[in-house]
Specification:
Blueprint lengths: L1 E6 L2 E4 L4 E9 L6 E7 L6 E7 L4 E3 L7 E3 L5 E3 L8 E8 L12 E2 L3 E6 L1
Parallel strand pairs: 2-11
Antiparallel strand pairs: 1-3, 3-8, 4-5, 4-9, 5-6, 7-8, 9-10, 9-11
Length: 117
């Protein structure tokens, strides 16, 4: 069992930055890939970033270069815009294949990010 708790969300002005943290506990040795996903009101969940144990990272459309996922599972977000407003979720994948959100089997409760124009 893996338990995830996000923190660091809040209100920020367009062009600003936020750093989200994800506290991980439990059977962390079973985790293959950590990731961040987000879901805005009325929209589907989308990939923000993932990082596997080898350090390989993937980013959602329009996020590479603005967002950065670090080894400690934090998500640094720069040059935020109102379209980045969403609930952000930390997730863990313990399977061998972690290509999309359906492979992630542990999720946090989420932290809200609101970007004002």
């Amino acid at each position: 069992q893996v338990h995830l708790v996000e923190s660091g969300g809040g209100l920020v002005q367009a062009g600003g930055s936020l750093r989200l943290s994800c506290a991980v506990s439990g059977a962390t040795y079973t985790i293959n890939t950590m990731g961040w996903y987000r879901q805005a009101v009325g929209k589907e969940r989308e990939l923000v970033a993932t990082r596997d144990n080898s350090g390989f990272t993937q980013y959602g459309d329009g996020m590479r270069g603005r967002f950065f996922i670090s080894r400690d599972n934090a998500l640094q977000m720069n040059n935020l815009n109102p379209e980045d407003t969403a609930m952000y979720y930390c997730a863990a994948c313990r399977r061998n294949w972690c290509a999309d959100a359906t492979n992630f089997d542990s999720w946090g409760q989420g932290t809200q990010v609101t970007v004002a124009s």
